[in-house]
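Appendix B. Raw example, untouched.
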Amino acid sequence: MRSLGLSPTIQELTSYLKGKNGKMAFSDFLDVMHQHVNVENLPAEVINAFKAADPKNTGSVPARQLRNLLQNWGEGLSVREVDSIFREANVNNNGTVRYADFVKIACAPVPDYY
């Protein structure tokens, strides 16, 4: 599911497997994917998190603050990983980042050829 761009929790995966008695045929997997796609909207969740930290409602965040968040919160990305994301998203370290645009790029599925 993750390779297809979804982010199910362990509890959700356990629930899906329990619903299928611990075994899942491909057709069952397709049903589960359909259910989960209707529940999850990761880009909207991330944008809402940015909005919650944007009291002036500017729609942007300083690039240095974004770098700090990406490197030090949650699983924490390496400097190299953040540099790669910034390069892909055309982010200048000294500028500001429109977070809606950044989320579109960051949440896009990774192509198979990488």
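End of appendix B.
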